[in-house]
Amino acid sequence: MSIDLTHMRKGTELLKRGFAKMQEGGVIMDVVTPEQAHIAEDAGATSVMALERVPADIRADGGVARMSHPDLINGIIETTTIPVMAKARIGHDEEARVLEALGVDMVDESEVLTPADPFYHIAKNEFTIPFVCGCTNLGEAVRRVVEGAAMIRTKGEAGTGNVVAAVQHARVVAAEIDLVQRSTSQEFETIAATISNGFRRLEAASEHTLNIVDTPFGSLNDVHTSVLEVLGEVREMGRLPVVTFSAGGIATPADAALLMRHRMDGVFVGSGIFKSENPATTAEAIVMATHHFEDAEKIAEASAMMAGRAMDGLEIETLDVRMDQRGW
Amino acid sequence: MVVIGIAMLQGARHAHMAAIQKAAAELSMNIEIIELRTMEDLEKHPIDALMLPGGESTVMRLRGNDVASQLLPSLYEWMRENETRPVLATCAGAILLADPQDGGEPLVDAEIDRNAFGRQADSFESDLDCGFPGVFIRAPRFGEVRDTVECTLSGEVVGVRRGNRIALTFHPELSGDSRYHRMLLEACA
Q: Which residues on chain A are in Cβ contact (under 8 Å) with B54?
């Protein structure tokens, strides 16, 4: 037993993206207590997301939502054998540093919490642990990958039990990937330039002509070069170059199967498990449907496993806060 | 035509499929990949070799043993019928071989601990003693090994072999080096 970890290469892009690949085909569940973490693990979650309140409660409570208390995250880390993720606010590098220090396996830079920076997301390339970030379209996804995200999830609309936004985002990303694949080289350059413009939001906040040159992710030139590289990978692969999950509104086994049909690599279920009437059976049923998404009989079987009602849902039009419009 | 089965229980399945395609191209071999989700998939498609990818072993046991799938018991049966059948198991797959938890004999005779190097922050890359690029992600760790040592890192066993079954605690499918995938295909010949 002489392996000395202090001299090994850690925190490489390969290790970060590799960690995300180990989640493929899986269900990642929001939990707020160690007991819930056990239920999730026993039901077959590939990871748990440790947080103080599920999105439905954050939405109901209103106010500023921040990173969870370290004691809560530690309590869940200590009781589970599967990976533990936790949420930091968009652009809040210090919350992410705290989560890294606590030993979480992946940080979710999440629109479910109140954003901390109106111009820039977290400089994720500077961390040892990997990040997952939300997107509503291809541009957001590419910008997050350029910033260092090892995994992408479509945002959906968290805490609603309404799957329509998740489907919307999956379709928009797929259609825009198709656009990139069909683009001429000139069109490709235009798409890349539009995506790079997302790094210049600060300019509009000044009464002067700023013409920013640097970003937290490197010079604007370097960032644009990275955008071209990532878009090139998208064109070649016909998909995002990182593992892509669905999130935001999944509440039933059929919802999970629907998003897997949209070629998602797996699903996050936030409020859908522990806001349902019988969380243990809901969790098992969603895991089963995600696994057998191509087999309608098994999805039917999974749907029948739910010993109680799914969470109550909300119409998107009635929402006071659209979490999917946070981040850019 | 060589038929490669891959357990689709959960985890880095597509990286394994890409790696085996690359290995087949390098060897100019024609292969067919069969995605195994249920016991019926294995009954319908006789396979020449098997890949057990990495992921979460807790999830794989649950999915592989549930009544809707029953894939794991049928894979154990397929392997136990003949130890010369080629198998490549990585990370969580290695755990399933060393610790089948089905009351039967282990498929490779070695003790194994889950996540024994620590959390994701401790995941690491390092060349093995044989020069192979090792990618270790929340990796398990072998304890006492009673089968053949396949490979080591700083003298510690990170790969175990019995016949044509290979259990690795690292991820050759992520490394870009297709030697282990070629080895699996060559064992089919």
A: 22
Q: What is the pLDDT of residues A10-55, one digit of tens each?
A: 999 999 999 999 999 999 999 999 999 999 999 999 999 999 999 9
Distance from CA of A204 to the nearest CA of B (A): 38
Count of residues making up chain B = 189
CB B138 within 8 A of CB B98: no
Q: What is the DSSP letter of A246?
A: B
Q: What is the mean pLDDT of residues A230-249?
A: 98
Q: Which residues contact A126 (CB under 8 A, 6 or more apart)?
A: A148
Q: What is the pLDDT of residue B147?
A: 97
By the CB < 8 Å criterion, does A288 face chain B? yes
d(CA A227, CA A269): 30
Q: What angle do CA A141, A144, A149 make, to 5 degrees?
A: 110
CB A135 within 8 A of CB A144: yes
- The amino acid occupying position B9 is L
- Judge if ipTM > 0.95: yes
CA distance B128 to B177: 12
pLDDT one-digit tens code per residue, A101-113: 999 999 999 999 9
| CA–CA separation, A177 and B117 (whole Å) | 38
> Using CA atoms, how far apart are residues B95 and B58, in angstroms rounded to an integer?
10
Q: Partners of A84 in the beta sheet?
A: A48
Residues 6+ apart with CB under 8 A from A34: A75, A76, A78, A79, A80
Dihedral of alpha carbons A23, A26, A29, A34, sign: negative
Q: CA–CA distance from B22 to each of A105, A196, A317, B4, B28 (Å)? A: 31, 34, 49, 13, 10
CA atoms of A151 and A99, how far apart (whole Å) = 17
Does residue B25 come out as left (phi exceeding 0), alpha (psi in the -120 to 50 range) or beta? alpha
Asked if B106 contacts B99 with a C-beta cutoff of 8 angstroms, the reply is: yes
Angle in degrees, CA A159, A284, A24, rounded to 5: 80
Taking CB atoms and an 8 Å limit, are A287 and B156 in contact across chains? Answer: no
Sign of the CA dihedral running A102, A107, A109, A114:
negative
pTM confidence score: 0.97
Residues of chain B with Cβ-Cβ distance to A47 below 8 Å are 56
Q: CA–CA distance from A184 to each of A21, A41, A179 (Å)? A: 31, 47, 10
For residue A290, give how far its alpha carbon lies from the nearest alpha carbon of chain B (Å): 10
